[in-house]
Amino acid sequence: MSLGGIGYEDKKRQLLQQFQEPGPVRLVKDTSNLFRHRSAASGPGLDVRQFDSVLRVNTDESWVEVEGMTSYASLVDATLEHGVMPCVVPQLKSITIGGAVSGIGIESTSFRQGLVHETVSEMDVLTGDGRVVTCTPDNEHRALFYGLPNSYGTLGYVLRLKSRTLPVRPYVGLQHIHHRDPTAYFAQIAELCSGDADFIDGTVFAPDELYITVGRFADNAPYTSDYNFERIYYQSIREREHDYLTVYDYVWRWDTDWFWCSKNVGAQHPLLRRLLGRERLNSVFYTKLMRWNARWRLTRGLNSLRRVYTESVIQDVDIPIEKAPAFLEFFDREIGIRPVWICPIGVFDRNARFPLYPMDGDTIYVNFGFWDVVTGRDGKPSGHYNRKVEAKVEELGGIKSLYSDSYYDRETFARLYNQSAYESIKKVYDSEGRFKGLYEKCVLRE
Ligand SMILES: Cc1cc2nc3c(=O)[nH]c(=O)nc-3n(C[C@H](O)[C@H](O)[C@H](O)COP(=O)(O)OP(=O)(O)OC[C@H]3O[C@@H](n4cnc5c(N)ncnc54)[C@H](O)[C@@H]3O)c2cc1C
Questions:
Q1: How many domains does the chain have?
Q2: Is residue 136 part of a domain?
Q3: Domain coverage including residue 37
Q4: Helix count and strand count (H, E) for the chain
Q5: For the chain, what is the mean pLDDT?
Q6: Percentage of the chain surpassing pLDDT 70?
Q7: CA of 103 to the centre of ligand 1 (A)
Q8: Cβ(90) – ligand 1 distance below 6 Å
Q9: How far is the CA of 258 from the centre of ligand 1 (A)?
Q10: With a 6 A CB cut-off, is 35 part of the ligand 1 pocket?
Q11: Where residue 95 sits, what CATH number does that domain have?
Q12: Fewer CB atoms inside 10 A, N or C side of the chain?
């Protein structure tokens, strides 16, 4: 079944025809959450925009079948209608499920459900040799099933997949727990991960001002707050201990202000907020503004006039929880971006091994998300701050997402992201190299 337009099988046929055009492949999509500046695209692209339908919501067996380029905004709408939601919903509405599987997707359910790719049970993948293969954890394409997460479209494109869902209730009751000491803070997060919470994340405003936000589904709410317009969700964390949101508003609580990054485009100013209106307060609008700024090099031009060194440090890194206080101490001393988003991750299936994003099944990890520009007075080599982050993450046994800038040398990258496993999968599914290599794409920004 398709909710509109032509059906999945017809879309697949049309795509395979497009794919017969020889040469390197470039994905054509309307939105992106990639924060790597790439070389300008050339040549015709592979238009995958029509793969945006939710095919089936099976509430008895708790899964949804969906096309790969479906945005989470559409997927959440379709599943909530049936009283369920995807087990992990990344915070930004335009992230697509295929993008979140081939990149890395995380949210406040991840302490129990793992990362987005751990919620998937089956995928149709368009491979470099022009086939569409169905891969599952135990069929003949299992190497591709496990290898696709963190491959960023270099092994194939996910066209259709099945993913686990969980039942929802109408409201989420929140408690924001204030801490002053990082060690006690991360210890309580670890403890909460084995409790009865439905959602856990956190916000660090300063090394001695840390909050855990615990969410629990509720059938009733004494009131609900609205952070989609004049009030701002992240500010409320410091202001109140308890709060209630509808489940829809909870799922999208971070999208309205792009966590807190809307401040970079002035959208937290009350007057500008009113001028922009509810419909423009969202991550898609801010992304467009930032890309426009990057294209015209406005901020960069001003900074070079002022002789200021600036560097975008936009990263998500996962650190074993016992090392989290050490990472935070390093981060505040060397990088200094505030606030920082915190999200615990528990591996869903201890026996599953995703070679390109290896995690220890017996460890709770903490995701640190930080997205800002770091400014320094003196001339520094390119990637100065990002390289420090990469070195610290490696030292502490963590792992870094690759959606943004990376500076690893080839050897270190090969070791950290298991390039021997990658190469053997690449050989089977893209022997002619129609898709770029992972290092070329994620580090060299080709
Ligand atoms: C500021 C910022 C904050 C972020 N915060 C979060 C967060 O809080 N939680 C979270 O989970 N993630 C977060 N991300 C990361 C985001 O989930 C990943 O970048 C994800 O890959 C984006 O998905 P997309 O659909 O927008 O894909 P795109 O940005 O369009 O593409 C990303 C990459 O995936 C490939 N790709 C896209 N679709 C497919 C497909 N169907 N099959 C195979 N490959 C595909 C593309 O070729 C490309 O290399 C954040 C990113 C940024 C920039």
A1: 1
A2: yes
A3: 8-168
A4: 16, 16
A5: 92
A6: 92
A7: 5
A8: yes
A9: 14
A10: yes
A11: 3.30.465.10
A12: N
pLDDT digits (tens, 9 = 90+) for 69-90: 999 999 999 999 999 999 999 9
Residue 368 CB–ligand 1 contact under 6 Å:
no
Whole-number Å distance, alpha carbon 164 to ligand 1 midpoint, is 19
Q: Ligand 1 centre and the CA of 427: distance in Å? A: 24
* Atom nearest to 96 CA in ligand 1: 25
User: What's the N-to-C CA distance of the chain in angstroms?
Assistant: 38
Tokens coding 256: 């309205």
pLDDT for 300? 60
CB 153 less than 6 A from any atom of ligand 1: yes
How remote is the CA of residue 31 from the centroid of ligand 1, in Å? 10
Answer whether 200's CB lies under 8 Å from 227's CB. Answer: no
Tell me which of 52, 148, 403, 443 to substitute to probe ligand 1's pocket, judged by most ligand atoms within 8 Å of the beta carbon. 403
pLDDT > 60? residue 184 = yes
Name the residue type at position 364: I
Confirm whether 65 is domain-assigned.
yes
Amino acid at position 290, single letter: M
396 falls within a domain? no
* SS3 state at 188: helix
**CB-count exposure of residue 378 (10 Å: 0-12, 13-18, 19+):** exposed
Q: Is 286 exposed, middle or buried (0-12, 13-18, 19+ CB in 10 A)?
A: buried
Q: What is the pLDDT of residue 3?
A: 43
Of 376 and 49, the structure prediction assigns the larger pLDDT to 49
- Residue for token digits 């751990």? 118
Res. 26 pLDDT band, cuts 50 70 90: confident
- pTM recorded for the entire structure: 0.93
Write out pLDDT tens, residues 79-125: 999 999 999 999 999 999 999 999 999 999 999 999 999 999 999 99
42 pLDDT band, cuts 50/70/90, is: low
Cβ of 98 less than 6 Å from ligand 1 = yes
Is any atom of ligand 1 closer than 6 Å to the C-beta of 312?
no
Helix or strand run (H / E) with residue 222: none
